[in-house]
Amino acid sequence: xxxxxxxxxxxxxxxxxxxxxxxxxxxxxxxxxxxxxxEQPPLTGEALIKRGEYLINAGACGDCHSPKIMTETxxxxxxxxxxxxxxxxxxxxxxxxxxxxxxxxxGVTSFVGPxxxxxxANLTPHATGIGNWxxxxxxxxxxxxxxxxxxxSRNLVPPMPWQFYSHISDDDLYALFAYxxxxxxxxxxxPAYISPENLSLNTVQNAE
Length: 208
Prior knowledge:
With 208 residues, the protein is mostly helical. It is built from seven helices and five strands.
């Protein structure tokens, strides 16, 4: 009987040790930071627009798409014409040579290179901008690089880096679109793109 009782005590000691170790492991795991990623609810309203504004500024979209005003620290986007594209009434100087350089207008809204001459688009919600666009138009323009977001239209030309922007998530694309639809509409019909062939003809005529 004593032998059995002694054996039971030894067994209890071992069981206690095992349980203590198990509790220690459970406690340590409980203290570890959770690696579970909690899904965030989609942004809406003002938060969505603020997210879009942040992305526009982070992507420096206004550097090309906004006319500039000169300040003591240099040119900055004109807040009254924010994201309205190349000004329709801006007279550009003659283009003398296009073969060896990529040219930028002083307002950084018109560009000349091997692709021809391009003009920064009006991104405001005016009819001359993206006022009539749906989100699907915007998505097609950014994801597929299609002019006016229309399937079958010409490709967007440099310096628009749509190939890089095409990887933006749907949520961020929607935030961008929401912000652009919320800003001041500006009536500005941007000049039409000029192909390399037509640009070469104009260059020759100007040189003469």
